[in-house]
Amino acid sequence: MRDTLRTAPAPMTWGTTYIIATELLPADRPLLIAVLRALPIGLLLIALTRQLPTGIWWGRMLILGALNIGIFFALLFVAATRLPGGVAATLGAIQPLLVLLLAWPLLHERPTRNRLAAATAGVIGVGLIVIGPAARLDAIGIIAATMATLSMALGNLLTRRWGRSAPLMVFTAWQLVAGGILLLPVALLIEGPPPIFDIRMSVGFIYLGIVNTGIAYALWFRGIERLSPARVAFLGLLSPVVAVLMGFALLGQQLSGVQLFGMLVVLASILAAQLDAPGGIWWQRWRRPAAVVAAE
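Predicted structure:
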């Protein structure tokens, strides 16, 4: 549970992305925002640590950077432009389910019925929080949001399977730079050169780069290393919950009874996934003799 609590701030921080982007950053430059979230902080960390990948890790960093950052951000941009935020968030909530299914062939971790049920409940809960009655559907947007979720799920699983060959911040920096470099030409081609920064934009980009991306992804990758991929994926459901709460607290948006119920469903699904461990949930293991628990 200690590692869970140390990982949870990452998706909670990502839940602040929407309000930072809408209040401080240009609304018509989502790809530029994605590049500036990843590339500058990644380059800064590499400059400070002076470590580069070696051998097979050059290829692995390109793959992980593409899946976790580059492809994920690009497809998320397509989904955001073609779908309401609520629909995109709900499709993103299928990540725990995808991780459970993909972990079976990649990591030989068979999904439990409890976690499958919790993943389904998590999708329903997020849908109750963010989908409004006027939500429109778009086939390309749905495909993009689904593929973005699949990209990050696969990236997380490969991160767990391959481990890391460098300190945590260095490993994070490599992925941020790889993903940022892949995104940069796409952003310049679609959106053109960046605008002149004012103070608000500078503050927004500094927060996104250091807190929302550098620190958050380091915590996320640490969680993948120390927890099962399923437990980490379920923590991602905290992001839409925090996004809605931020809108309520800072923008004066209203919360309905349905949204509050959806939050309870999401939190219950996250808790169920964290407690569904081999050999019984945590209080059952606590009651057993220490030697038995250690042997498991």
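Summary: The two ends are 17 Å apart (CA to CA).
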